[in-house]
Amino acid sequence: MSITDVLSADDIAAALQECQDPDTFEPQKFFQTSGLSKMSASQVKDVFRFIDNDQSGYLDEEELKFFLQKFESSARELTESETKSLMAAADNDGDGKIGADEFQEMVHS
Fold first, then answer.
1. Is 95 a known ligand-binding residue?
2. EF-hand domain: which residues (predicted)?
């Protein structure tokens, strides 16, 4: 699966443009611009599985650091503060990782 199978390449490019500078990544803005927030719950979970590098069923901070690169390989890494902020926004049960349901809830919040 390629991310452009489910999201428009133009929308992804626009979303990445908005956060190209360090510490400018805003999850909700990214989800809206990329089109993720308009997708169904099952489609968002498909994207989650694409982002989940080790297929563990969870995203940890190391995977989140490369979040933007899953949408475009030349995109920058998230900064440590962006990574921690993204984790805090989605980790509802406080276990230090984001499950598919938590990811979907964050995208649609």
1. yes
2. 39-74, 78-109
